[in-house]
Write a structure and sequence with these properties.
The protein has 348 residues and is mainly α. The protein contains 16 helices and no strands. It has helices at residues 3-19, 22-25, 31-35, 47-72, 84-93, 100-132, 135-138, 146-159, 165-193, 203-212, 214-224, 232-236, 238-241, 243-271, 289-321, 333-343. Helix 9 (165-193) packs across helix 15.
Length: 348
């Protein structure tokens, strides 16, 4: 590999950090907290449950994201493009004629596209709102400004789309490097005082947890799945950055940072059961809470970019395959403001 090619791959990997991994990268904010608060605290903050949950989290990320998406599915591209529509295009290219199997597979793919659009509609609103609500921790008096700040953040985010994914990735990439570095540093700081938590990387703890509490395990899986939200963006955005830059960003930055942070949160919960109230922020010292609220808000805004870019990719592919009419992408801020003023009966 030439030096210029290596630099290009590194630049694409940096862009991928800002566009592709925002959603899954912000899961530590709420995932474990949700696990230990499901069904009247069915998952207990004891050694068996904590080790079992952390083991399940690690192996869920490993098998679904690393093995399924990065190792296998990302190899099934359509001239470099990824996403569900790329798979549909491959199905169309197979010699299946007008068989029922072909149309069943295409129908299943289109259903998956519909689900992805649904995710793209709700993720920005929910993730940004939940992050901005963290401002109340530092300044409770700002509660009435949560919704306006959220709307303003989303307007800025969507208006930035006209500059293109490449420029957005360059702007967001460095911020996400800081975010993942902070995730890893917080986890390492906790693990340094309790390295025994590293044993949770063994799948035996997940198996023991399942055999001891099958019903509780099933309930907890509904929350553990939050740790892999956004994984489909790896495949959907492959056409923007390529398979190798995304894979390298995952293996060298995102995967290690997420693993270390979840291990640190597990150790913190075992240290004091009351930490289940918010294990992510409690990983940090008191003086760092306000900066972390601000950084988490920025990171969660960036997380919305993953599904937005994926929606652009899927729409373009759907147009190329003839599943939707040719669509003109227009600047949406004026349309949004017109709707907003009309809905709330506000005079311009």
């Amino acid at each position: 590999m030439t030096r210029g090619h290596a630099a290009g791959t590194a630049a694409l990997a940096l862009g991928a950090l800002g566009v592709v991994f925002g959603d899954i990268g912000t899961s530590p904010l709420y995932a474990l907290q949700t696990v230990f608060s499901t069904d009247d605290f069915a998952v207990k903050p004891n050694t068996v449950d904590v080790f079992g949950v952390i083991s399940m989290v690690f192996w869920s990320i490993t098998m679904i994201v690393t093995v399924k998406f990065v190792v296998f599915i990302m190899r099934a591209d359509n001239d470099g493009e990824g996403g569900i529509m790329a798979l549909i295009a491959l199905i169309q290219g197979e010699r299946l004629g007008r068989s029922k199997l072909k149309w069943v597979l295409i129908g299943a793919g289109l259903f998956g596209v519909a689900l992805f659009y649904g995710d793209g509609m709700i993720t920005p609103a929910i993730s940004v709102l939940s992050a901005v609500e963290g401002v109340e921790v530092a300044a409770p008096g700002l509660e009435e400004f949560v919704v306006p700040i959220t709307i303003g953040s989303l307007v800025v985010l969507f208006s930035a789309q006209k500059f293109g994914t490449e420029y957005i990735g360059r702007a967001f990439g460095p911020v996400m490097i800081v975010w993942f570095a902070v995730l890893a540093a917080a986890g390492i700081g906790q693990l340094a005082s309790d390295p025994a938590m590293l044993k949770a990387l063994s799948p035996t703890y997940a198996i023991d947890f399942f055999t001891a509490h099958p019903k509780v395990t099933f309930i907890s899986l509904g929350a553990i799945v939050l740790t892999i939200t956004g994984a489909e963006a790896l495949y959907a955005d492959m056409g923007h950055f390529g398979r190798k830059p995304i894979s390298r960003a995952w293996f060298f930055v995102v995967f290690p940072a997420l693993t270390i942070n979840y291990l640190g949160q597990g150790s913190l919960i075992l240290e004091d059961a009351s930490n289940i109230s918010n294990p992510f922020f409690l990983l940090f010292p008191d003086w760092a809470h306000i900066p972390m609220v601000l950084l988490a808000t920025v990171a969660t805004v960036i997380a919305s970019q993953a599904v937005i870019s994926g929606a652009f990719s899927v729409t373009r592919q759907a147009m190329q395959l003839g599943f939707v009419p040719r669509t003109q992408i227009r600047e949406g801020i004026k349309l949004f403001l017109d709707w907003y003023f009309e809905y709330y009966h506000i005079k311009k």
